[in-house]
């Protein structure tokens, strides 16, 4: 276990670098990144982020497809629930509920 | 039609409310998991204040539990947050900001506020003040995230290890609602979503974590450009 001071230094490094990443392009974007194609490409980023945070994190473990897990069941079963209620926030509530319920039953 | 300050506030809260359950659950679980590391509440909650980025914080805590070397832990967390470079580039197009406002926006620029601003930007007929929406949602999320981190930590101290959630599950569960809702609401983006999903699974066999995140986001851009091009032909 590391000393709290060492870990805090690490936290500060991550925090400062994160802030730098967030602020950099807010201040300056090179001219070649101003075209309409770049705008179309940038518009696709949020969708890419959502897919990246949901699909491979659900289906893959250690770079192999592994669907025989409660987590996969919980995420998959929450999809029709989200569709039915038409509310994005229902996602985590239903997934966690299904996961905990399955854990208790099994 | 300009819907004014109250309308902007109402819109912000309406779009923010679906995010709050995931932030609350994610925050509680982060605080709870932080408690298992054996580090103090000051250190764990300082992560939420200083970094304010759930996935990077979670990865740091999980790697600390596994007793990984500190430098790779820090590097991994830094790499996971490289995607925020792109968020700044996208937001710059949507928000007209002074220097001071940019410095404020940068601190609150997380996945959720980025997503909310994107959703608000698509509602162009309401002529929304995107900066105010960003600020309201960012401040609300920050407050919720930090309070639930502390609560989660104390929950662990009180109840011990009653239940453990796999880290990836919480991340996926937090965002699946937005992905499915977007798929439902925007049929024109469905091909892009499905194409990006297939590519991300394929890439996932070879790369992981932050690299996979960034390459999937870039793949999504290429797919969108390709689909626009085939639409024009």
Explained architecture:
The complex is a heterodimer of chains A (106) and B (233). By secondary structure, chain A is mainly alpha-helical. Chain A is 75% helix and 4% strand. Chain A has helices at residues 4-27, 36-43, 45-59, 70-85, 90-105, and strands spanning 60-61, 64-65. Chain A has a two-stranded antiparallel sheet with strand order 1-2. In chain A, a hairpin with a 2-residue loop joins β1 and β2 (64-65). The radius of gyration of chain A is 20 Å and the shape is extended. Chain B is mainly α. In chain B, 79% of the residues lie in helices and 0% in strands. Chain B is built from twelve helices and no strands. Chain B has helices at residues 4-16, 19-36, 41-50, 54-65, 70-80, 84-94, 99-108, 111-122, 130-159, 167-185, 190-204, 209-232. Chain B is globular, with a radius of gyration of 19 Å. Chain B starts with a helix and ends with a helix. The model of chain B has no long low-confidence stretch (mean pLDDT 83). Classes of the chains: A mainly alpha (106), B mainly alpha (233). Chains A and B meet through α1, α2, α3, β1 and β2 of A and α2, α3, α4, α5 and α6 of B.
Keywords:
heterodimer; A: mainly alpha; 5 helices; 2 strands; B: 233 residues; mainly alpha; 12 helices; 79% helix; globular
Residue-averaged pLDDT of chain B: 83
Count of strand segments of chain B:
0
Helix count, DSSP H or I runs of 4 or more residues of chain A: 5
Computed Rg of chain A: 20 Å
Give the overall shape of chain A, derived from the CA principal axes: extended
Q: Structural class, from secondary structure content of chain B?
A: mainly alpha
Number of helices of chain B: 12
Total beta-strand segments of chain A: 2
Structural class of chain A: mainly alpha
Rounded to an integer in angstroms, the radius of gyration calculated over CA atoms of chain B is: 19 Å
Helix fraction of chain A, binned, reads over 70%
Envelope shape of chain B: globular
H and E order of chain B:
HHHHHHHHHHHH
In angstroms, what separates the terminal alpha carbons of chain A? 34 Å
């Amino acid at each position: 276990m590391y000393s709290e001071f060492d870990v805090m230094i690490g936290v500060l490094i991550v925090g400062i670098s994160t802030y730098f990443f967030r602020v950099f392009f807010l201040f300056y974007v090179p001219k070649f990144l101003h075209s309409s194609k770049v705008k179309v490409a940038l518009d696709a980023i949020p969708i890419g982020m959502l897919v990246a945070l949901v699909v491979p994190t659900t289906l893959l473990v250690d770079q192999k497809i592994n669907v025989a897990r409660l987590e996969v069941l919980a995420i998959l079963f929450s999809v029709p629930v989200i569709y039915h209620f038409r509310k994005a926030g229902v996602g985590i509530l239903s997934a966690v509920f299904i996961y905990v319920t399955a854990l208790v039953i099994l | 039609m300009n819907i004014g300050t109250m309308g902007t506030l109402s819109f912000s809260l309406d779009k923010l409310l679906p995010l709050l359950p995931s932030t609350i659950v994610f925050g509680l679980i982060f605080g709870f998991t932080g408690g298992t590391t054996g580090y103090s509440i000051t250190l764990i909650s300082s992560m939420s204040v200083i970094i304010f980025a759930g996935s990077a914080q979670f990865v740091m805590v999980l790697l600390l539990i596994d007793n990984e070397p500190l430098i790779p832990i820090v590097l991994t967390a830094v790499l996971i947050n490289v995607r925020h470079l792109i968020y700044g580039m996208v937001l710059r197009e949507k928000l007209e900001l002074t220097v001071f406002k940019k410095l404020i926006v940068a601190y609150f620029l997380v996945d959720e506020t980025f997503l909310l601003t994107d959703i608000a930007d698509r509602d162009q007929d309401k002529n929304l003040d995107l900066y105010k929406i960003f600020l309201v949602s960012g401040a609300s999320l920050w407050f919720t995230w930090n309070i639930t981190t502390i609560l989660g930590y104390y929950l662990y101290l009180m109840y011990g290890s009653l239940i453990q959630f796999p880290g990836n599950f919480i991340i996926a569960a937090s965002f699946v609602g937005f992905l499915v809702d977007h798929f439902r609401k925007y049929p024109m983006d469905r091909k892009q979503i499905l194409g990006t999903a297939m590519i991300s699974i394929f890439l996932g066999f070879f790369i992981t974590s932050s690299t996979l995140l960034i390459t999937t986001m870039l793949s999504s851009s290429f797919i969108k450009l390709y689909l626009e091009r085939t639409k024009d032909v």
